[in-house]
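Feature request, filed as a ticket because there's no other form

It would be nice if the structure record came with a short human-readable summary line next to the tokens. Right now we just get the raw output. Example of a typical job, pasted below so the devs can see what we mean:
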Amino acid sequence: MEEIRQQLTADGVTTSSSRGGFSTEQYGELFVKQGTGGAAADAALLRYEAEGLTRLAAAAPSLAIPVPRLVGSTRDGNGFIVMDRLSLSGRCDLQKLGAGLADLHAAPSAWEGHETAFGFPLDGCCGALEQPNNPSGRQMNWVEFWREHRLGHQLSCAPAKRSAKLQELGAQLSKRLDELFAMLVVEDIQPSLLHGDLWSGNYSGSADGRPAIYDPACYYGHYEADHGINRTSMTTT
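Raw output as currently delivered:
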């Protein structure tokens, strides 16, 4: 924490220690997160998180979203992010959360030069799992993106010796994705900014009454991907 305080000071921020972070005259209470998904991580993954937080806040001002203030590395190479500390109430108004997500998903894509692409300008992670995001902005439809960069990648990360059946079923599913999406006009699906990991542990209520979202794994995709995660979370908690 002292290393991080020194980097904040070098950035011109006057700090004093507080629980889990720092108190500052410029920004108020700050929260420090080291690594991601409960593990050490390169600073690039925390830069990805910071970029996601910035884009979420711009697209959905009705939601409380922490502002990133500093991303860096400690001497041992572990990345960190310093952001505004949210004052959380623990009680989230789900109707307000839904309205905020509608704003988020309806906002025009801010991926300059790739407004119709699925993915994100930076590769990132979802928890501790690396997440390829098509940073070159290669054009593909939603099913192609999901097959290659989500389902296919997750299957490739499963240990082959212990997941032969999983790989077999995954390959069968991958081949059938076009059939499973046949009820949709896939070519008409436009990319929306997604939180990307919106389970119940990543949203709450804030003290000012707004729903709060945090710990994103952002990318531009089909908005129902966010609802697929939060619906599962809401029905199991």
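Something like this underneath would help us a lot:
The longest strand covers residues 28-34.
Helices lie at 2-10, 43-59, 94-106, 142-157, 164-175, 177-180, 224-236.
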